[in-house]
Design a protein that fits this description.
This is DUF6917 domain-containing protein. It comes from Tepidanaerobacter acetatoxydans (strain DSM 21804 / JCM 16047 / Re1). By secondary structure, the chain is mainly beta. It is built from no helices and 12 strands.
Length: about 140
Amino acid sequence: MNDPYKKGMFKANPYAKKKPLKGNLVVVLDGKYDERGLQLIPQPSRCLVADEVHEIILTDEDKKPGDTVNKIAYIGFFTVKESTVIIVGDEVKINGQVIGKIAGFDETHMPNHYNIVIYGNDRISGNERSLNLNDEVIIG
């Protein structure tokens, strides 16, 4: 396989323009772990397709693609409204509240769903944030 990300071919962000992702929470999660062991893939982007469901997990560890993430809080699952691409560094908002920025992607549960790992200052779960079903998710 000739993966341009693994070979370090991109010296700058190649995404000149892209649509933000819009979706809605379908599950609000509660729980935290200090030794989760999520393995972020080396690729900094993922294509998400309309009507797919994916998980948002927050960490307060400053990690990048290829790293392992241990300290996490579960936020929730959301549905994708319209197909798009999301990338490391994209800001994640739920109901207008900034949760953090994408640190990377874990494929533990693929092909069922991606774990989208967000870096933020406060390791607070979705339930502790008083999030609700159908809350709007915007990534971009």
